[in-house]
Amino acid sequence: MATARALDVIGDWWSLLIVRDALNGIRRFNEFERSLGLAKNILSSRLKRLVEHGILETVPASDGSAYSEYAPTEKGLKLFPVVIALAQWGTEFLFEPSEPISCPLDVDHHQPLRRIKVQANDGRELGPADIVSITR
Amino acid sequence: MATARALDVIGDWWSLLIVRDALNGIRRFNEFERSLGLAKNILSSRLKRLVEHGILETVPASDGSAYSEYAPTEKGLKLFPVVIALAQWGTEFLFEPSEPISCPLDVDHHQPLRRIKVQANDGRELGPADIVSITR
DNA sequence: CCGTATCCATTCCGATACTG
DNA sequence: CAGTATCGGAATGGATACGG
C-alpha cells in the first residue's frame, strides 16, 4: 500500500502544491502564501506537517532575516517525478486547445521548457509491472 | 496551474487509489469496495466523478452480468506515471527497512517487478525546467 | 514579516438502511 | 450484486483578529 501511504502524507489538496512551489525555489512563508492564495493558518499547519514528515526542513534565512526558510530535503526532492507527472498529465488533458498554458515549473528559471522523452532502455514496452525511476 | 487542476480532479484521498486499482485490472464495483474498504456511497460518487471527467468509462460486463464495469480510458491510462511515481516514492521513504513491501501494481501479473532506470537522453541533469514524458 | 488562535460554514466520510 | 438515500460526527478551509 505504498501509494496509499504516500497519499496519507501528501494527499491533501495543498501539500503537494506547497511541495511543487518549494521545488520551484519558493522558500518564505509569504511567498507560499502569495503563490497559493491560501489562509495563513492552513499554510502554517501544512508546512509544519511537511517538516514533521521530513519533506521540508527549516533553515536559517539566506538573507539574514530573523525568520527561517522552508527548503526541500532529499526526501522532498524525490517527489519531483510525482509533481512532473501530475503537471504533464494536467497539461495534456485539462486545457482547451486554444488556452494558453502557464507553467509554474519554470517560474524562477525564465527559460523555455525542455521536453525529454523517456523510453525503456531495453526497448520493451512499459506496463503495470514496471517501476520507472528518474535519476538526476 | 496544470498541477492544481490535476489535483482538482484526482486530488482527493480516494480517487487516485481507485484509478490505481483500475490500472491494476479491477473493474467491478464490489472489487473496488473490497480492495479499498470504503463506504458504498463514496465509492459510488467517486466512480461517477471519474466517469464524468473521462478518466474511467462504463462498459458492459465482460462476463455477461447485468451490471457494467469501470475501465480506464486513454486519459485514465495516462495517469500511469503519476501512480508509478507515487508508489515508488512511497516505497522508498515510507517503509521501515525490515518491513515487507506488498506491491499492488503487480497483483494480476504475478511477476517480479522490473526496474527501469531513466536518464536524460542528452546527459544533462534534470531540473525544474524539465518535463519528463514516459512513452509506452 | 511570520506565524498562532478562534470562529464558522462547508465538505467529507462512515455506517446504516433500503431498492431492484 | 450494484447501487441510492439519509444521517451525524469529524475534519477542512477561509476569514479574521491577534502577538512576537
Strand order of the largest sheet of chain A: 1-2
Portion of residues within helices of chain A: 40-55%
Shape of chain A: globular
Mean pLDDT of chain A: 76
In DSSP terms (H or I, runs of 4 or more residues), the helix count of chain A works out at: 6
Tell me the fraction of residues in β-strands of chain A, as a range: 5-15%
Task: Name its key features.
homodimer; 136 residues; alpha+beta; two-stranded antiparallel ribbon; DNA-binding
Summarize the structure.
Chain A is α+β, with helices and mostly antiparallel strands and 136 residues long. Chain A is 42% helix and 15% strand. Chains A and B meet through helix 1, helix 2, helix 6, strand 3 and strand 4 of A and helix 1, helix 2, helix 6, strand 3 and strand 4 of B.
Structure description:
Two copies of one chain form a homodimer. Chain A has 136 residues and is an alpha+beta fold. Chain A has six helices and four strands. Chain A has helices spanning 2-10, 15-23, 29-36, 40-52, 74-77, 80-93; strands spanning 56-60, 68-72, 114-118, 130-134. The first copy, chain A, has a two-stranded antiparallel ribbon with strand order 1-2. The longest helix of chain A has 14 residues, at 80-93. Chain A is globular, with a radius of gyration of 17 Å. Residues 100-136 of chain A have low confidence and may be disordered. At the A-B interface, helix 1, helix 2, helix 6, strand 3 and strand 4 of A face helix 1, helix 2, helix 6, strand 3 and strand 4 of B. The first copy, chain A, binds a DNA duplex (20 and 20 nucleotides) through helix 3 and helix 4.
